[in-house]
Amino acid sequence: MTKKWLLQSFIIVISFAMFSCRGLNSLYPINTNNTSTEVLLTKKNYKVIKRVSGEASATYILGVGGLSNKHLIEKAKNMMYDNAKLEGGAKAIINVSAEVHNGIWILIYSRRSVHVSGYLIEFTE
After folding, report:
1. Residue 99 buriedness (CB in 10 A; 0-12 / 13-18 / 19+)
2. What is the pTM of this model?
3. Which residue among 26, 92, 113, 114 is least packed, with the fewest CB closer than 10 Å?
4. Which fold has domain 22-123?
């Protein structure tokens, strides 16, 4: 009886591990600025135009493949800047943050997605 119970328990545990979809989320505020531009928002001399975002993802098989977190965040951030269309005018993106989601399926295949977003502002003065 104990061998049968042990085998059934083992099969149940393996089934849950193999066919469950687990995910982990992390939020990273991005405070780094690659340029030396400093924006002071001490007075109401700007208006918020819209929220802009960019996404990047990578696939891993047995933990191998894809890009690192840093590279995924940079790729998503570049896509966000492309979507913002900053040319022409005094515009900037503020309050930039990155959300990282790690999804694991069948203990072999995993996918990491990064979503970077911020607010596009335009200076009025």
Report:
1. middle
2. 0.68
3. 26
4. Translation Initiation Factor IF3 (3.30.110)
